[in-house]
Amino acid sequence: MGGKQPEPANVSSKSESMATNKASPDLLNSLSFKSLKLKTKQQELLIRVSILGLVYVLAFIARLFSVLRYESMIHEFDPYFNYRTTLFLTEKGFYEFWNWFDSESWYPLGRIIGGTLYPGLMVTAALIYWTLRFLRFFVHIREVCVLTAPFFASNTTVVAYFFGKEIWDTGAGLVAAALIAICPGYISRSVAGSYDNEAVAIFALLLTFYLFVKAVNTGSLAWALGSAFGYFYMVSAWGGYVFIINLVPLYVLVLLITGRYSMRLYVAYNCMYILGMLLAMQIRFVGFQHVQSGEHMGAMGVFLLMQVFYFLDWVKYQLNDTKLFQTFLRITVTSAILVGGIALGVGTASGYISPWTGRFYSLLDPTYAKDHIPIIASVSEHQPTAWSSFMFDYHILLFLFPAGLYFCFKRLSDATIFIVMYGLTSLYFAGVMVRLILVATPAVCLISAIAVSATVKNLTSLLRTKQKVPQTGSMKGAGSSKASSKVLLDQSQPFQKNGAIALLLGVFYLLSRYAIHCTWVTSEAYSSPSIVLAARGAHGNRIIFDDYREAYYWLRQNTPTDAKVMSWWDYGYQITAMGNRTVIVDNNTWNNTHIATVGRAMSSYEDEAYDIMRSLDVNYVLVVFGGVTGYSSDDINKFLWMVRIGGGVFPVIKEPDYLVNGEFRVDKGASPKMLNCLMYKLCYYRFGELVTEYGKPSGYDRARGVEIGNKDIKLEHLEEAYTTSNWIVRIYRVKPPTNRL
Amino acid sequence: MAPRSDSQTLATGSAMSDTSVESSIDPIFHILRIIPFSFLRPPRLRLKLPSFTLPSPMTVFALILLTYFLVVSGFVYDVIVEPPGIGSTQDPITGSIRPVVFMSGRVNGQYIIEGLSSGFMFVLGGIGIIMLDLALDKNRAKSVKASYATAGISSIVIAYVMSMLFIRIKIPGYLH
Prior knowledge:
The complex is a heterodimer. By secondary structure, chain A is mostly helical. Chain A is built from 33 helices and eleven strands. Among the domains of chain A are: 53-380, no CATH class; 545-734, Rossmann fold, CATH 3.40.50.12610. In chain A, the strands form four sheets. Chain A has a five-stranded mixed sheet with strand order 6-5-7-11-10, with helices on both faces. Helix content of chain B is 60%, strand content 5%. In chain B, strands 1-2 form a two-stranded antiparallel ribbon. In chain B, α1 packs across α2 (14-23) and α6 runs antiparallel to α7. Classes of the chains: A mainly alpha, B mainly alpha. Chain B: Keywords: Membrane, Transmembrane, Transmembrane helix. Chain B: Belongs to the OSTC family.
């Protein structure tokens, strides 16, 4: 339609210019009407590029709510560790970073940071920082860290466009890019300030998958090489690379079963597996896991199966005799399965191949973590997903996902089989653990984009049939049935056209509701820095609680440099990064016994706790208390987890001692052990004198909604060092032992 | 795998077995020919190996739709956390127990029935879009196409409206 219109204008302008200026300079010719009109292909390219550009910018700015509302700072807990390591990397260089042993955390054990982290994120941020400095933009590394996640989210939309183009067509690619730019499932972990591994990892994941599907479609070694490097980037960025190394072999297996074995698949998978495995072993944290760990054995098994398939194909080609080949096939397949099974059995029995680790095993058997590993079960992100979480994070996409699956099944190809498998496996895992909704988001967006694109294409083709029908009707009247059917179509044409327009408006309405929902969710739910709390005052004004940073800076400025701080492991990273002091346990949670020791200290009486603290050289104790502000994520609410984890290692701590009739209480009816344990004393010291709410007695705990039981607290071995302005963080000094008289 | 099919070739006919004996390179077959089948005579059976045919794409799709319904209803949450089927609250004045369908206040908590009904709405919406696509397929009668179209549109509208209603009940501050 676009191509027809300009032509008459071109002809007239051409005659005009030729008539008016025969000896005109070239400048006038180049400025003529003709050069500004684009052909249809160029118009389409312009539309596509401008849409992609707008989506790129949209993905970036949608994530900037917290920077605009608060300030440019790092959020939550884990990003502080990443920030500290990135700072170290930019200051000391790569070799120091790679060989870093940190004695400031996990006192007195220390932590081999170089060998126990995924360096992809830090190296990426450092590279961006050095590039900007080379271009003479002298930004602070913190700004780079804060804005890394939105930058990579924008890059993900571009990759999603190419992926959608590979699977379906350019329309689906554009819709996929637009959907993924604002999808709350992705925004939740990639908002500005959320400087965590997932920020880069989702980009690497989608890139690897795109390059692999491209390699399978083209059979080119170059694309397979690209996917191996994409896999290497993913391994360096996040522990979730295990998903790739299991999904890709599963996909290859499904292709083999459905009879889609081809040379392209052989080239793509072999190149990616071998090179990817060799590259992945360069990361110290991963090490030899690709040949030793049970989670990676599936890939090796499929690799060997591919060789068997290729061998059989070659033998079949050589033999030219079907009966011989059938017997040979039977022998080979049986022996291959036998040999593989024996090797796997010997490896597992001898202990060379380690079994599945608890983190990943709990994905296959979700009840495992609840019974056996309380640390994994205690993290709120690891809980299974309820329907409202899905709705919150996906909205319209939940309707479009099954429709998209239907379209994929209608047009099965190697690429659509891949996206279907990715979507189903990731959605199942998202159902098991809330945190993994992030991994499912690209698949859901892509499949939904297919549904939208196919539906819109159907509807617009209905709109366009109007032009073709009169032509064929007028050309020939061959056969009365044909003529009558054309007449019938003619009669229903306006109805169909109106219906199609109405449905298109409906699609537009649904997508606009999706955009409104996504913006609202981003603004309300996912843009909170967690380290700065905000609440609405009595008159609707916003009150900011900056107690955490206040406490950490007090630690930084008012304690000796070699002071050791004991707190629950949630706050470890923040204390080391902002307070610059040594901590006993932090968020890495690699040593369960050490955490259990701290948990035991927190749940014991003050005398026993003092012995434990002296043995760990603790100088300061930090607790988080929400009784004055009504903040519900404080240490008293986490207390039962301390008891469970401590009790898991030290049987002297028994959970029923702290409960009354199975109920956790802090008021007068609480158990005596609870009323006198260290955590209770430290949280409620001097709280009995405080009136927190009008009309309630003194010592009313606003987070639990009860008046506390033990108001007259005396501390023998500790003294209060600092309490923040809203009583959220409380720091105590451990007194040295009294002199013997 | 090899011995079973060998016994089948022995059972089906001696003529065929002669040619298979001469041309077979299978060592296990030859071993079995000597021991024990040189002195044992296998009975004539009519056995057939079960053949493995792949199901059609649409069958697989139906199964997948069922799995999708289970996952999105929060089935894993139900199995692990074991919430009650429906919640209950006590009326403060009369003292009677009133049922509560939606666990309010939390985004990541549900009762079993609310999960299943929401999951059903999502699947209904998806099926509505599928029916819309079936309606635009050229090879059907007009009346069938029209009924598919109306069913599809009504499914989508109902599913969307109900889902919005559910989320508004569950999260009171939604979109404010």
